[in-house]
Every structure is written in C-alpha cells, then in structure tokens.
C-alpha cells in the first residue's frame, strides 16, 4: 500500500503544447491517501485513463512528478512500482488454465506453492470460478475472462495500489453488483489503495470512499458521494451526478435573491456581486410543484418510474426536472414550482460561489 502524490502533474499528447487547451490532463496536485478507495469519474475523453496510465507507469507525464510514499517514481517502469492493473478488456493467457492464470503473479514472485494454492482458491471463490479452475482460458466468454483478470489483479496482498480501468464493461449486468461488492470487501479486508476508473456514476458512488470527478482534462471536484450530491463545486458535477441531474438555470443574483427573468428565488445566504455567466443549480429532489406559490411552470409530461415520478417541465423558458414521490398527487392546476432555498447553489462561470459566511 502506498500514499500516491501527484505533484504539478500535467500531460499533453502533442510534442510542443502551446496552451492549456493542448493538455489532455491539466495541472493537478493531490495526495491519494494510503489505503483509500478512489473512483475517477467522468465522460469519455475527460482524462481518466490518461491519469491512471501515468500512475501505473504506462505513460510518462509531460510535466510534474508521481511519488509513492514520498519516493519519486515518475520515470520508474511499471514493474518497479509494485502495482496491479486491470484493464477494460480482459488480458489473460489463453493457453493456461484458470488456476494458472490466477497463480501467475504469485509464482512470478517466487511464492511457495502451498500459499499459491490457498490464495488462488480464495480468489476463485470470490469471483465465482471455483468449478472452472482446471479449464483452459481459451474459449471462455468475455465476462469470464474479465473475472480472471480481476482475480489476477487481486491475488497479491502486497501491492502498492490496485488500478482498475473500467473493469466491468464486459461483465454481464447481473454480475456487476456482486463483483463491486467483492472489491469493496477486498478493500475492507486488506486496505489496498484502490483507484477505479469509470464513466458510470453508480459504480463510482457505490465503490469509492472519495470520487474524483473529471471534466475536460481537469479534476473539478474530489469528495464523498454525499458532498458531490449536496454541494457540486462545478455545474458538470451537478449535471453528471444524479438521475436526473441538477437543474442549471441562468439567473441574476442580488444579495439573497436570484432573479430568473425578473422573478425572484429566495437563497439561503447572501452573495457579493457576481460577474460573468451566473446560474443557479437546484436538484430535482428539491423542487416541488404548487398551486399557489413559486415560479410559473408548465408541465410537459409526467414519467412514473415506480419509486418516484419525474416531471418534465419548463420554468420561464428553461427546461427543468422535478422529482415527486410515488404517491404524491400531481394535477393540471399545479402551475407553480418552489425550490428549497437551503439546497440552491449559485454558480459563476460554472464554478460554485459560496455565500457570505459559509464555513470552508
């Protein structure tokens, strides 16, 4: 296990980057705590895999350093970093049995056969392949091969870090939850530093102690699932986390009131004058239809998805979503909407602005 430090790190795939826009990974400084489980979350092309490959040593950064427990490993090859990496698509030895595939990392490091057998059996049980240990990997399904890759990544207890690059993409949906649960159990039992790349918010939020949200090559927020939901530091975080995502509405903010086309929305705190693109963000969970108060709203349709209803609506020319409880009454005469003032965030140029007096 290791504390991983990213020091002034950035990367461009161009030979002579001239501006920040030329960097696939923009400057980053952060400490990954020893023994913590992180998820790198973002849409395709945001820099997740670039960052993971720099940490693993498959890619050398254009600038900055990588340190494991204070030791500079920026130019150290992957083999010297003592990490295990599981890729998006399965990497197995087709001519070997499942048992020998799982045993390979241990035998390669000279572990005795009694320990190898015990550990392989334990991992095979974890990934549900005990009855397939004697089968050759050739001819197995893609999800079975990926389970072997996962198992081979997890078989060593002494690694500095376990890195996962969208490892459940080819796994059947009914197996994904079980394997995520096993990964969390592994982390709980052995305390490995884990970094898990995904574009799936459910995977990220259910796996990680802290989620690292990336957008356009930049880390825009690092936080617990609760922090990302309650206080998105960037409009992308609000949009990407949650289903449906946060409503973002252009507004003018004056003190403790936001004005949407002249109609006021009360805010929980006061704000200094703001420049640039100003918006408010409110999650669908904190919006409510009303017959008597709030902003004028026009309901387009109501989608009943069992646990709750999603109300697709329009407020003063801006599309919004509203969540209603499963048994909550929605009628045609409910033509106003209110927002919970304590849950409304204010953004300037996509970044959250703290109200006056808010604790850091």
From TrEMBL:
Can you quote a single GO CC term?
ATP-binding cassette (ABC) transporter complex, substrate-binding subunit-containing
Q: Where does the source fall among the domains of life?
A: Bacteria
SUPFAM superfamilies associated with the record: MOP-like (SSF50331), P-loop containing nucleoside triphosphate hydrolases (SSF52540)
Quote the Gene3D superfamilies the UniProt record gives: 2.40.50.100, Nucleic acid-binding proteins, P-loop containing nucleotide triphosphate hydrolases
State if Secreted is listed as a keyword: no
For molecular function, the Gene Ontology terms on record are: ABC-type ferric iron transporter activity; ATP binding; ATP hydrolysis activity
* Domain (ABC transporter) ranges: 4-241
Cross-referenced InterPro entries = AAA+_ATPase (IPR003593), ABC_transporter-like_ATP-bd (IPR003439), ABC_transpr_FbpC (IPR015853), ABC_transpr_MalK/UgpC-like (IPR047641), Mo/tungstate-bd_C_term_dom (IPR008995), NA-bd_OB-fold (IPR012340), OB_MalK-like (IPR040582), P-loop_NTPase (IPR027417)
Q: Which SMART domains match?
A: AAA
One Pfam annotation, family name? ABC_tran
Query: Which keywords describe this protein according to UniProt?
Result: ATP-binding, Cell membrane, Membrane, Nucleotide-binding, Transport
Which family does the record claim for this protein? Belongs to the ABC transporter superfamily.
- The molecule here is called Carbohydrate ABC transporter ATP-binding protein, CUT1 family
């Amino acid at each position: 296990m290791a504390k991983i430090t990213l020091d002034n790190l950035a990367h461009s795939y161009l030979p002579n980057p001239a501006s920040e826009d030329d960097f696939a990974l923009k400057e980053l400084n952060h400490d990954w705590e020893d023994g913590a489980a992180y998820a790198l979350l973002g849409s395709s092309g945001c820099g997740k895999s670039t960052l993971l490959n720099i940490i693993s040593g498959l890619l050398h950064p254009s600038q900055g350093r990588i340190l494991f427990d204070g030791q500079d490993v920026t130019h150290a090859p992957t083999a010297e970093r003592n990490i295990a990496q599981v890729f998006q698509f399965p990497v197995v030895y087709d001519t070997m049995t499942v048992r020998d595939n799982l045993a390979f990392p241990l035998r390669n490091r000279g572990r005795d056969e009694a320990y190898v057998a015990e550990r392989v059996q334990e991992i095979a049980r974890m990934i549900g392949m005990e009855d397939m240990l004697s089968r050759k990997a050739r001819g197995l399904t893609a999800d079975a091969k990926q389970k072997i890759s996962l198992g081979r990544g997890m078989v060593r207890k002494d690694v500095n870090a376990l890195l996962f690059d969208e490892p459940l993409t080819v796994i059947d949906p009914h197996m994904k939850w079980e394997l995520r649960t096993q990964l969390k159990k592994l982390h709980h039992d052995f305390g490995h530093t884990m970094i898990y790349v995904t574009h799936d918010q459910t995977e990220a939020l259910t796996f990680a102690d802290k989620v690292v949200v990336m957008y356009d090559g930049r880390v825009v927020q690092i936080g617990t699932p609760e922090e990302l939901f309650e206080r998105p530091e960037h409009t992308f975080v609000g949009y990407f986390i949650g289903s449906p995502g946060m409503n973002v509405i252009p507004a003018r903010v004056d003190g403790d009131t936001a004005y949407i086309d002249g109609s006021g929305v009360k805010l929980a705190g006061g704000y200094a004058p703001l420049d640039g693109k100003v918006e408010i963000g409110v999650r669908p969970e904190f919006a409510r239809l009303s017959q008597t108060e709030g902003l004028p709203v026009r309901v387009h349709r109501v989608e009943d998805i069992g646990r709750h209803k999603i109300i697709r609506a329009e407020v003063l020319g801006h599309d919004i979503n509203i969540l209603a409880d499963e048994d909550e009454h929605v009628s045609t005469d409910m033509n106003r909407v209110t927002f919970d003032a304590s849950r409304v965030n204010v953004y300037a140029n996509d970044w959250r602005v703290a109200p006056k007096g808010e604790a850091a």
